[in-house]
Specification:
Blueprint (H helix, E strand, L loop, with lengths): L22 E2 L14 E7 L6 E8 L2 E8 L3 H13 L5 H5 L8
Antiparallel strand pairs: 1-4, 2-3, 3-4
Length: 103
């Protein structure tokens, strides 16, 4: 099962974590990419919220930030390690990564 389709990428409240919603890191730029775009540049755990991972991408020469959140701490840690290992990869290819059905 691909990362994007894994049932644990959907929160119990119905919110789908993948793909992240992207926001600009530039004050003078309002355009935001949508979907599985760009290349993963960095992955950071939140130090305030224990189930949130921040992702930084580059798309069309600009840097953007998004985040993903999880209900299951074990799955959160698994995805964090996977993302750290795939810095430099296109977001679409990361979404294509095959995961087991279980955490």
């Amino acid at each position: 099962m691909k990362l994007r389709d894994h049932p644990m990428m959907i929160r119990t409240n119905g919110y789908r974590s993948w793909p992240p919603s992207w926001t600009t890191t530039h004050q003078d730029r309002d355009e935001k990419p949508v979907g599985e775009v760009g290349t993963l540049q960095d992955v950071v755990r939140s130090h305030i919220i224990d189930n949130k991972i921040f992702l930084f991408i580059e798309s069309d020469g600009f840097r953007y930030m998004g985040f993903i959140t999880f209900d299951d701490p074990g799955f959160y840690n698994k995805i964090y390690r996977l993302l750290k290992h795939h810095v430099g990869w296109p977001i679409k290819e990361i979404g294509d990564i095959e995961l087991s059905h279980t955490p």
